[in-house]
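Please, structure for the following, as tokens.
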Amino acid sequence: MRDPEPFDFLVKCFIALLLLFATLALIDIRNDIRRAPRCSASTKVAA
């Protein structure tokens, strides 16, 4: 097995941070959609 290169490690960390940020953004967007009083059914489910 070859030694892991620091560049590969940095790339993996960067991708992991991007995925984490994307999931947090998606959760935030879904929460904003739930908070919007568009449909009474969605507010009942959230409450």
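Helices lie at 6-35, 40-46. The chain has two helices and no strands.
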